[in-house]
Amino acid sequence: MSSYEDRDKCHFYYKIGACRHGDRCSKKHIRPTSSATVLVPNMYWKPSSDDSQTLQADFDAFFEDVYMEAARFGELQTMVVCENKNDHLNGNVYLKFSHPKEAHAAKDSFNTRWYNERPLYCEFSHVTDFREAVCRKHDVQSCERGDECNFMHVQRPSQQLLHELEQAQFCQKKQPKS
Ligand SMILES: [Zn+2]
Ligand SMILES: [Zn+2]
């Protein structure tokens, strides 16, 4: 790909998977026809609560649900959920598999499903390197761009849960298929 073409591409769409201008962006958003990453836009809705324990428990339950469902289709390498407040990132779920074939299967299945009484919609995403997409400031302190930041503000599951989910996936893989 030549660098001339790159000038027309929307960096946000390609790096973060979503851009605040959406379809009206003046730069190009070309949807991939295949990818190892599936994006489910606006999937997680935070409950209205000020209690951090309630919020974490709700998020952990959500994370586990989606992780387990996605892992049925292949090796789930990364699951990222955004907690930005801007519409194009709010509650976005990114599921990166080890192979596009697995992502295909997951996407096809998710697109026929409902979650929390809403039909799911998902698409392939260009994002495969999350280091480029994640706002590091949000992880270490607060980001000066706040909730409207255009980089991913990642909501983290509890360490223990993530560890358990990764272990479960690892064990499942080692079992012979019946
Ligand atoms: Zn754009
Ligand atoms: Zn930020």
Automatic annotation (TrEMBL):
The answer to keyword GTP-binding applying to this record is no
Coiled-coil regions listed in the entry: none
Q: Where is the C3H1-type domain?
A: 4-32, 129-156
User: Does the record's keyword annotation contain Zinc-finger?
Assistant: yes
Q: Which UniProt keywords apply?
A: Metal-binding, Repeat, RNA-binding, Zinc, Zinc-finger
Q: What are the boundaries of the C3H1-type zinc fingers?
A: 4-32, 129-156
Q: Which GO terms describe its cellular component?
A: U2AF complex
Every RRM domain range: 36-127
Which protein is depicted? LAME_0G19878g1_1
